[in-house]
């Protein structure tokens, strides 16, 4: 299992050059062959930024994605029409910049899923040649796509949401197998759908699709474990947050209701948990973490430019160490800096400072 006390969740802010190029691409003014070198430069910059900050683990910043989960719909046939709002809908909250409601678009799976290409294998192959650090690849958790199953539009392709999500999981299982063959050593599943279940409105949404929230959660973990499979020498992580988009969040609530259902049962080696403010609750649910797992504390917020200090972060780590031994703890941002191309309300310099604070804190706490 990976031994690293610093980590990242996945996405980084897209540089202006990439945002401009992607806008031209969407308007049909730029082809894929012209977009690719811009994406390559953005990946190179993202890796350098993380290396310069002193992190043990790096990603490609998800520079080639519209959203952290959009590679599934982009790489797989069977989904109907979709756009960025397919991944942004919901009631988003912020005390600083105000709330925002994004209506759910008419998204659905309308045909049998068929992979056109691998989701992230090319991302991995490019980035592997550009760093000597541990390179993490992020994938969406299968049950995150439950919102694409609509009885009226999807039942001709899949008789139930369970059948549909099983097909999603199989595609992701094949993806993991190919990533491992290509050299992946650290793979993360992003699963914000689980913390959403602490909110009654989101429980109702899932229950309308056929099962009580507890059954959705159990089935989701079963699918995650199928995707993870058995790959000796490869570390798997799972990231749990409460929504992160344009510096807003979806729900509040601690991990208590989820902890005994997820922490001991998911096959992931590293639990990347959001703990950047009071909405996340206290560390007490960490008592459910088994001895063979590492907890990556997401103490550094990506939602604002607030600069955390080493003293502040070290103090919170030591507080968590009252429950989980210090050697089984690590530090990361609470989520990505740009879970979609929209990005959060901070600058690349803010991002750089936060990543450096993570590395500096790790040197203080663990050396």
Shape by Cα distribution: globular
Look at the helices and sheets and give the structural class: alpha/beta
The proportion of residues forming helix, as a percent range, comes to 25-40%
Oligomer: single chain
Radius of gyration: 19 Å
So how many helices?
A: 12
Strand content: 5-15%
- Give the uncertain stretches in residue-range form: none
Strand numbers in spatial order across the main sheet: 1-6-7-8-9-10-11
Largest sheet: 7 strands, parallel
Q: How far apart are the first and last residues' alpha carbons, in Å?
A: 20 Å
Question: What order do the SSEs take from the amino end to the carboxyl end, as H and E?
Answer: HHEHEEEEHEHHEHHHEHEEHEH
The strand count comes to 11
Give average pLDDT, whole number: 95
Features of the shown structure:
367 residues, alpha/beta, seven-stranded parallel β-sheet, two-stranded antiparallel ribbon
Describe this structure in words.
By secondary structure, the protein is α/β, with parallel strands linked by helices. Helices cover 38% and strands 15% of the residues. It contains twelve helices and eleven strands. The chain has helices at residues 16-26, 32-53, 70-75, 121-128, 151-154, 161-182, 193-196, 200-207, 213-228, 256-262, 310-320, 348-366; strands at 57-58, 76-79, 90-92, 100-102, 109-115, 134-140, 186-190, 235-240, 270-274, 294-300, 329-333. The strands form three sheets. Strands 1-6-7-8-9-10-11 form a seven-stranded parallel beta sheet. A two-stranded antiparallel sheet has the order 2-5. The protein is globular.
């Amino acid at each position: 299992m990976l031994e690293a006390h610093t980590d990242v969740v996945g996405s980084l802010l897209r540089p202006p050059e990439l945002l401009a190029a992607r806008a031209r691409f969407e308007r049909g003014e730029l082809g894929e062959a012209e977009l690719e070198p811009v994406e390559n430069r953005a990946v190179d910059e993202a890796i350098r930024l993380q290396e310069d900050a002193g992190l043990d683990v790096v990603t490609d910043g998800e520079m080639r994605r519209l959203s952290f989960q959009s590679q599934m719909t982009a790489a797989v046939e069977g989904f109907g029409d979709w756009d960025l709002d397919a991944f942004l809908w919901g009631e988003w909250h912020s005390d600083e910049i105000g709330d925002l409601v994004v209506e759910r678009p008419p998204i659905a799976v309308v045909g049998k899923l068929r992979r056109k290409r691998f989701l992230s294998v090319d991302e991995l192959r490019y980035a592997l040649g550009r760093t000597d650090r541990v390179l993490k690849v992020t994938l969406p958790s299968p049950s995150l796509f439950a919102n694409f199953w609509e009885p009226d539009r999807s039942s001709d392709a899949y008789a139930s949401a369970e059948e549909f999500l099983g097909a999603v999981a199989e595609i992701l299982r094949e993806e993991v197998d190919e990533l491992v063959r290509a050299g992946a050593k650290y793979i993360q599943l992003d699963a914000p759908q689980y913390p959403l279940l602490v909110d009654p409105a989101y429980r109702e949404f899932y229950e309308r699709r056929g099962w009580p929230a507890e059954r959705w959660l159990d089935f989701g973990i079963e699918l995650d474990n199928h995707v993870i499979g058995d790959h000796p020498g490869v570390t798997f992580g799972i990231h749990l947050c409460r929504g992160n988009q344009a510096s807003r969040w979806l729900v509040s609530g601690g991990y208590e209701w989820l902890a005994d259902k997820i922490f001991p049962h998911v096959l992931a080696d590293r639990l990347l948990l959001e703990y950047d403010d009071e909405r996340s609750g206290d560390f007490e649910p960490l008592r459910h973490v088994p001895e063979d797992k590492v907890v990556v504390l997401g103490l550094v917020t990506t939602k604002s430019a607030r600069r955390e200090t080493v003293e502040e972060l070290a103090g919170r780590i030591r507080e968590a160490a009252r429950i989980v031994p210090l050697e089984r703890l690590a530090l990361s941002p609470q989520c990505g800096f740009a879970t979609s191309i929209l990005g959060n309300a901070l600058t690349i310099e803010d991002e750089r400072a936060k990543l450096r604070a993570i590395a500096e804190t790790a040197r203080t706490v663990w050396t």
